[in-house]
Amino acid sequence: MKKAEPENLIEALAALPESAWIKPRVLTADEKAMVAKLDLWARRAFGVSIGRFHNQAGVDVPNFDSIEGLVSFGIKHGVRLTQEGAAIADAAHLWKGHTQANTAGRGTAPGRKPGPSADVSHGFYGIADLATRNGIPEYRQGAFEKRLRRWRKDNALSGDVIEHDASCKNQARFLFRESAGAIQDIINLYAEKA
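User: That's the sequence. What structure does it adopt?
Assistant: Structure tokens below.
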């Protein structure tokens, strides 16, 4: 015998299973503090709230005691870093294949205070800066830019390209790690041969 459809709201509510009436769990003060801490760190390192970070990572986010732990977790799960997140990853040696040998040239100049500054100090540059630094002639810069953009789309999760909030209209939105092997190969294709 087929069950009859409820005729009014009261019958519809009575037909709901008991699980529909369970109240949502309220977070404790410690849990609220943990979520607030993780949210602050996620906004600094990834430019998104902890909820959006959770959606991008596709897994539950455990509680971390340090921002480096959250950055490492985000890198492992393919979440894009901000410039500050990349600086944290550099300082904590979180990149794949990071050794003391490939940190050459990142030291602090005499008389300068250490710490995060422009993206240049961490080895990340915009396309125009890469072209200028590596002697790519002006007539080849358009092709160089297109090649890097195609490479970026295919290698967005490699850690060799980061997206940051360009606060000025003329700032580069995507920054590339100059020391990366694939980036060096592209530079060598377009650089002026001496």
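Helices lie at 9-15, 29-46, 50-57, 67-76, 83-91, 127-133, 141-154, 181-190.
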